[in-house]
Amino acid sequence: MLAKAHITAGMAAAFTIIMPENVPESLPVVTGAALGCLICDIDCDNASEKADSSHWRKVMVLVAAAALFMDWQLDAGMWAALGQNGQYLSFAGLAGFVLTCAFASISSHRGFSHSLAALALETVSLRLIFPSAALPFAVAFASHQILDLMNKRPVRLLYPLKKGFSLGLFYADRLANRVFALAGSIWLVLIVIFCLR
Hints:
It is built from eight helices and no strands. The protein has helices spanning 3-18, 23-36, 47-74, 78-81, 87-105, 116-129, 131-149, 175-196.
């Protein structure tokens, strides 16, 4: 799938699993899901996918930054938790996250960046920085993996093993992508309204 489908599905899945009841509780969900929904595609090698993903990754980083800024302004808790595990562990989390993303960016598409190892390493790293954003990150990341498993191109979930997995149901850039993006958008709007009513 392409970026819009991953964004809407990842954000909707995170809101569905976490079910925040107010704006302050939703800020870690937005932060984690915004980072998790597209981080897998840091390794895009196809020019059109790369351009699409790169643009939307920047938008999602801005969304995460805006949520972090709102959290700071509202004193909602994410910043208060920074360093909760100790400054050294927070720094280790940041270093682990950056190094994992750097390695993922040079891997082949749907290789390490889409693996269960990347999911675990990045989630644990984020947990050491912003604990409340880790679960939404993992949910959005996993939704990306699930959507990509439906495509024709294999996903190397068990990296470093060479074997990839694919259900072979859809092409990533065709009708299914638009259907998942629309369904995810509708689901996201409905779940946000339900959570914050």
